[in-house]
Structure formats: C-alpha cells, structure tokens
Amino acid sequence: MPDPMTGLEILDDAVKIGLDAAIGLVGAKLSHAREWQTERSSRRIATLEKTAFDLAAVAIIYWNLEATVATSCSNSRCDTKEV
Length: 83
What we know:
It is a single chain. This protein has one helix at residues 7-75. It is an all-alpha fold. It has one domain (9-72).
C-alpha cells in the first residue's frame, strides 16, 4: 500500500505545477509578442511599398506631362514670362 502524501509533498507538487504553468505562460506571452511584431513589420513594409509605387506613378505622370508641354512648346512659339 502506498504511503499517504504529507502536506510538504503536496505543497512541493503544487509549486512544481505552478512553476510549469508560469513558465508556459511567459513562453506564450513572448511568442505572441514576437508574432505581433512580425505582423506589424509586414504591414509597415506593405504600406511603404504601396506608397513608393503610388509616388512612382505620380512622378511618371508628371514627367509625361512635362515632356508633353516641352514638346508642344518647341513645336510652336511658347513664351513664358517670369514673374
């Protein structure tokens, strides 16, 4: 017949279980924080890529407009007065 557990053995087991739970909780928190940081970085990179693409599109439109104005001014007299 097994020996009955003493109060000290029960306390020892409870501390071990609680310590394991605390370690698991800290590990889960760190993992969640790392996952959140990775997701945030991905969103920031996507936003920067979209902004760069939009800016490049605007620059191309502007340069095409400038080329069109320069071409039309060279084909006909295009006097601009400086203020």
